[in-house]
Amino acid sequence: MFQILVIDDDISIQTLLKRMLEKQGYRVVAASNGEEGIAQAIAYNPALIICDWIMPGLNGLDVCNYIKTDPNLSTTFFIFLTSLDSVADRVKGLDAGADDFISKPLEQNELKARVRAGLRLHQLSRDLQTQKLLLETELAEAAEYVRSLLPLPLTEPFSINSRFIPSRQLGGDCFDYYWLDSDYLAVYLLDTAGHGLKATLPSISVLNLLRSRALKGLNYYQPSAVLKALNETFQMNYQNDKYFTIWYGVYNRVNRQLIYASAGHPPAILISGNSPKKTQVQLLRTPGMPVGMFPDAKYVDAYCNIEKLSSLYIFSDGAYEITKLDGTLWSLDAFIQILVSLQHTIDRQLDQVLNYLIALNSKEAFDDDLSILQINFD
Length: 378
Description:
Rossmann fold, five-stranded antiparallel β-sheet, 9 helices, 15 strands, 36% helix, 24% strand
């Protein structure tokens, strides 16, 4: 049975409303002023409130504003009882969060109809809120599953650290690194177009496909061949019009050589040199369209040698396409400078970069998913 709260400083109207509503089968509690009304609302969490506009102390607008800003009461249907009928007064009521109005003097049939309609809307709001909570719970579980698939930090024979901040609970970024054999390490990072669940599914599909080496006959040591195979497998026509960019590399730890290829992805940044004055920065990128755009896309390999004390950074464009507080867009060059400044610190902690990006961002959350891999080779 629905519970209704009546708030009115006029005892005769309060009594009349209570009698009319109880006659219709509702449970009714009453309050004689705004302060008491708020206390009753917190105690009983009513489905519907009928509140007088003009009262001593807290008036109806104050009560309405409190009710509608309390998360536990926000679905309560709020009806103003008022003799004010100007448009300006109605606008004030609506701005405060009111859902409906009943004019004085009371008309019984109108009261019945507005209360029934209000309770229907309250129930609908409660149902939607429940569905939202269930969906948020399921999304949180899905996000935790995605995180569980990402690789753990590597410490031997060199270190690999990562950071992953999806712009929503689920993101389109994904990365992995694993040993093809005792000497060769494969590493990649991909960024699916879009956000949310629709972008997450292709990312997880790629991760599972590569990790299980399910593409038979494929040379996983040759990055261009891997990108070609992915492009043939994930064409847009068959994958809900989703394409993705990717950087894929294979590192030989014996001869310290890296072979890599990219498909529309930002360049990986290789920083080497044992002092600030001797720092070298290489942008590692090869030509190639994003995976899924064109069936006949071509991909090529490139090579580089890894000097002592080098660091490699692989990231999504969310790491530098950040809107600053002044409204301007940050740049890749500025991001590279942050990485260079980190190179000659004692521990090269990736969290220093992340903290800088969070401080730089002008919004509570990033506009795009943000992923960074850091490989410190020595």
